[in-house]
């Protein structure tokens, strides 16, 4: 069995085991690229045929397009799988270009594209070992021209490719590449020495100047370019400065087929140097095929005001500013994976989203809605199977929300008996092909519900196939919360209504939040690895409902309650005696990241701000966080 590095790599390709390449160094038989060859560009096409011919002139090997690398002790190490868009790959064009430009014809060369999802994949160019009598393989020279006299011989040397100089080529040909019996050992040794000493002279380039077209911002570009090492390390600009998203950018030429770095400048900020791979991650993070629109969504690197920002090629986090999606960052959420956009958690009061309540009207109704969508994600089955519905119920059972419900009903005793969660049934359920409905209740001895919880988990529909909507609703009959567990029974209608302390409201909303962000796991267990298609958020609605009167009393007409009727606002300090508002709410953007303590603080801060709008001018957020 062939156990050579090339054979092992071919086995991994055959098995589509792309992750096995991660951690492998580039070598004389393996070269990877993070971006497709730009075949419409003369230099890009020349780079392709040079790389292919170099392997043919050596021991053969594999060219893999769709992987990122890092430099470790001077060696290029494959550190992530980075599939390329299928729409950018025309395998027939690759084959034709090699066939037309490389002489003699390379035997048994294959060019294949292996999809990894509906839109991306890995391009594999396999160059088998060629007969020595066929060598050397000659291509148009480094200047990219097709004239017969402008020819060159590329050679693979270790993990790099070199051109033979004119002297090396002349010495090689005069010695006789195809001597009888094949090349002698001294010829091969001389060739290796020639390759090691070869330093190709690049042709003069006509390219824009650094910062060209930036106007008053030009100095920021030149400062960042100089701080990053100038042309020696960064290459030259490929186009003048252009406006993209919230700022200005200028792409630079890459080396050896790798994406080039990009200079960026934001208003009132210094410049930043963004490595090519990270720039590609940034362009993909904004969920559109157009890079400019994507950058507009997520923003640009947040450089300091006075000094350039140099982003490392192996950076795990990049702070961003100026995007339509709000404050966020690029972050590596899985080892070796791409940098994904993640929002910084923030709060506001945009509560118009999905205000429809699940369940019967209650004197106090609390509703939490999670809205999250991922790029290129679509739930596979045509309808939710029973296993997903049971997992939905299991996640609620495992949460602390049921115990919270029990504390509402029995808060005058130490006993906590969590109610059972069950799949909802009957005409009042919200099951459908794309939705699951789970319910739990605590009832009084004679049957009336004291606390009712409903949760609906819904996958995307044909309009928004990549989204998931999850809701948790709590309904409380406050007249039934005045007794103990042993005495739980309906109170007379004239009895004083029990109001929920606002401190308990904070804990209730946090409990709903924490179970809510776990519910998508019923559909996608590894949701943390997915790139967002838009900022995820949780919206909380707080409603005062109708007075739960007995039928026939006051002609059965239920009075609409106010927030002050259902919530004990004493913890807010002095305030108005009559709060006429019947509902309020808040929104948290980026709900997955905060821990329990941070979540309590965000909810308490929001309720404190809402209290100020109600006239509680001395409201102290610390009072809402007391145990």
TrEMBL record:
One Pfam entry name: SLFN_AlbA_2
Query: What is the official name of this protein in its record?
Result: ATP-binding protein
InterPro entries assigned: Schlafen_AlbA_2_dom, Schlafen_AlbA_2_dom_sf
Task: Give the species this sequence originates from.
Answer: Paractinoplanes bogorensis
User: Which molecular function terms from Gene Ontology are attached?
Assistant: ATP binding
All copies of domain Schlafen AlbA-2, residue ranges: 26-134
Could you list this entry's UniProt keywords, alphabetically sorted: ATP-binding, Nucleotide-binding
Say yes or no: keyword ATP-binding present: yes
UniProt feature coiled coil, ranges: none
Can the keyword ATP-binding be found in this entry's annotation? Answer: yes
